[in-house]
Amino acid sequence: MNDNNKLKFAGRMKRYMIWPILLSALLIAMNVAMYFIQVKAGIWFTFCVGVYVVIALSLYFRSRPRILNEMVTFAAEYGQVQKRLLQELEIPYAVMDQQGKLLWVNLAFTELTGKDKRYHKSVTSVFPGITQEKLPKDGGETELHITYEKRNFRVLLRAVCIDELLERSQVLEAEESGCFIQVMYLFDETELNEYILKCEDEKMVAGLLYLDNYEEVMESIEPVRRSLLAALVERKMNQYFTRIDGVIRKLEKDKYLLVMRRKSLEILKEKRFDILEEVKAVNIGNDMAVTISIGIGYNADSYVKNSEYARIAIDLALGRGGDQVVMKDGESIQYFGGKTQAVEKNTRVKARVKAHALKEFMLSKDRIVVMGHKNPDADSFGSAIGIYRAAKTLNKTAHIVLEGQNNSIRPLMEGFLNNPDYDDSMFIDRHEARELVDENTLVVVVDVNRPSYTECEDILYMTKTIVVLDHHRQGSEVIRNAVLAYVEPYASSACEMVAEILQYFADGVRIRNIEADSLYAGIMIDTDNFQQKTGVRTFEAAAFLRRCGADVTRVRKLFRENMNDYRAKGETISNAEIFLDCFAISECPGDYVDSPTVIGSQAANELLNVIGVKASFVLTEYRGVIYVSARAIDEVNVQIIMERMGGGGHLNMAGCQLETGMNEAKRILKDTLTEMLEEGEI
Q1: pLDDT at 168 over 60
Q2: Which family does it belong to (predicted)?
Q3: How many C-alpha atoms does 346 have within 13 Å on its Cβ side?
Q4: 628 near 616, Cβ under 8 Å?
């Protein structure tokens, strides 16, 4: 009790205990005032006040020690209860020093790990994922996710300052301020994660499935068998998707709606969408195999958005030539398949429709600006010349964006420079293009469909009227704001597409000899003298250009090589190495030739003539960038290899650019080939 007499009330408790005494003082003051009113009443009031004061003082001095004693007892017991609650807390809890060494653990932590309060080693020895570098500093917090004994835990680490505690301690002191202890909570999220995963697995996935070559396949068999083939293909697809709990419904004769769960989609990804090959195996005498394309959208905020993703994905799959699956998850896009050469369409209806649409857009604008890709080749230059001629036929002002020359287009370009038949402003650089392009300008992009690869990307955002004409397969990066996009992967070259357009563009289109030479040269270079990727329409386009005045001998003379280029090509071929018994890899010297990338692509074509080589890759260093030219005949799809490395192209002709050193580029290429072979991609 003596110890309690040394304690005093403070704060709210002090004000509460002294309140009767303050009230006594108020009553005494009222008693004095009462005597001025009536003495007799004042005497009686004095007696009452005296009784109240005696009782109040008695209660105050008698109750104060007892209340203090009870409060001290409660505080001591409360501390014990707190300690017991913390010890028996169901959440595993531990206290560590600043270096992560365990100081104290509760029972739940002991039950989880088997380590009791006598275990004072580093927390890393218990949970390897919690290293000293991950511990919070200066009163901060850190949240981690770990797996322990096949269970998932969310770990909350908190640094607690103990400077004030050390100041009151009689046995400990700190050498400097800012001392912390680490407090750790472990929250078991195993069941929660299971429910989250189950919820994710049940999300709806929308898809569209198209038969790529329905009309062509049906025409290749007898009429009486056509319904049987269609039924067999549909039965194959129904059985396949039913096995994975998916639903497929026909929308049109060659279009289907596909609905499944996310879990089913993961099964398809593990199988690498082998439905593509199963459908091709359906054969009842048809000369041409049926191929399908699938566009899938998922992980959107709504079913409508998933459906929109699926539509974008199927457009991308068809734009890349079909026979593949494209999955769109927000901005992320994945590709599967795409190993079959795109089938050439016999009809030119699409070319005629696009030609008329292009004419309408040109008529609605005052100025036409044409551009190809950076470091242009004969195909890019020739197709730009073709569009220039179309614009001039309509008496429109037209310009071609070219930033300098290279050996691949210099022979062609010299015929237009200082030629009185052509305006001095026919060719403009990037700066001039930015000055000229406005809302009343039509920008036509040829031989490229990636904004970053164009000669001047800025002008794509300076007008709303953009037309894209290209023969390369589309990737995830495309020109999205085009009012007209004519992308046909089956075409041999952009010049072939432009030559077809010119035939339907307008009556009386007069193509001059030099322009016909440029278009013919683009086709010839891209097909390696009509040896690769040529179809019926390729030769028809070449025949049209011959009738317009293109001369084969004159074009051949334009592209004769100088001795340095010839020597560089020979050096590239002689230095080639055979990797994994089927890939030819070489480096093209770029120090003594003007256009090493062109030499590299030509050397890659030559390496395909070596027996046993399925694909060739030539790396060329040009202006600080490594250009990779990839070529194949029919056994390897070099497009998907180059896409893995950030590029693109066709099944048998592709490329990419790497901003790294030559040795590192070779290592990346070899690692990619090895990885894709192991995965069964190639």
Answers
A1: no
A2: Belongs to the GdpP/PdeA phosphodiesterase family.
A3: 6
A4: no
Q: Computed from CA positions of residues 115, 118, 119, 122, in that sequence, does the dihedral angle turn out positive or negative? A: positive
Condensed to tens digits (0 to 9), the pLDDT of residues 322-345 reads 888 989 887 788 888 766 555 555
Q: Among 590, 632, 592, which residue's Cα sits nearest to residue 610?
A: 632
Q: Are 180 and 159 in contact (CB under 8 A)?
A: yes
Burial status of residue 299 (CB atoms within 10 A of its CB: 0-12, 13-18, 19 or more):
middle
145 is in an annotated binding site: no
Task: Render 102-124 in DSSP notation, one character per residue.
Answer: EEEE-HHHHHHHS--TT--SBGG
Residue recorded with tokens 């998922």 = 298
Q: Would you place residue 169 in the very low, low, confident or very high pLDDT band (cuts 50, 70, 90)?
A: very low
Q: Three-state DSSP class for 276?
A: helix
CB neighbour burial string for 551-567, b if at least 16 within 10 angstroms, e if fewer: eeeebeebbeeeeebee
The pLDDT value recorded for residue 287 is: 78
Q: Do 408 and 598 contact (CB within 8 A), yes or no?
A: yes
With beta carbons less than 8 A apart as the criterion, state whether 487 and 463 touch. no
Q: Measured between alpha carbons, how far is 622 from 598 in angstroms, rounded to an integer?
A: 11
User: What is d(CA 34, CA 41) in angstroms, rounded to the nearest whole number?
Assistant: 7
Distances from the Cα of 625 to the Cα of 50, 125, 218, 614, 657, angstroms: 104, 47, 48, 26, 7
- Dump pLDDT digits (tens) for 44-95: 888 888 888 887 777 777 766 666 666 666 555 555 666 676 677 788 888 8
Q: What is the mean pLDDT of residues 485-510?
A: 87
- Give the DSSP H/E element, type plus range, for residue 442: strand 441-446
- How far apart CA 594 and CA 600 sit, in angstroms, is 12
Sheet of strand 141-148, all strands in order from the earlier edge strand to the far edge: 102-105, 93-96, 180-188, 151-161, 141-148
Sheet holding 615-622, edge to edge: 577-579, 583-588, 615-622, 625-632, 653-658, 648-649
Instruction: Evaluate whether 568 touches 596 at the Cβ level (below 8 Å).
Output: yes
Sign (positive/negative) of CA torsion 307, 450, 509, 389? Answer: positive
Residue 104 has pLDDT above 60, yes or no: yes
Distance CA 384, CA 434 (A): 18
Span 392-404, pLDDT tens digits: 999 999 999 998 7
Six-digit token pair at 218?
């049906």
- Summarised one tens digit per residue, pLDDT across range 427-460 is 999 999 999 999 999 999 999 988 988 999 999 9
Spatial separation of the C-alpha atoms in residues 641 and 582, rounded to whole Å: 14
Q: What type of residue sits at position 369?
A: V
Q: Classify residue 64 by its DSSP letter.
A: H
472 is in an annotated binding site: no
Contact yes or no for 533/653 (Cβ under 8 A):
yes
Provide CB contacts within 8 A for 63, sequence distance 6+. none
Residue 577 and residue 146: Cα distance in Å, rounded?
Answer: 46
Strands 583-588 and 577-579: antiparallel
471 annotated to a ligand binding site: yes
526 is in an annotated binding site: yes
Residue 305, phi-psi category: left (phi > 0), alpha (psi -120 to 50), beta (remainder) = alpha
* Mean pLDDT along residues 213-228: 86
CB proximity list for 37: less than 8 A, separation 6 or greater: none
Mean pLDDT lowest among 170-179, 198-207, 375-384, 585-594: 170-179
C-alpha 653/C-alpha 649 separation (Å) is 6
Q: How much is the pTM?
A: 0.57
Give me the residues paired with residue 398 across strands.
368
Q: What confidence tens digit (pLDDT) does each residue in 108-123 have?
A: 888 888 888 788 788 8
Angle at CA of residue 571, ends 570 and 572, nearest 5°: 90
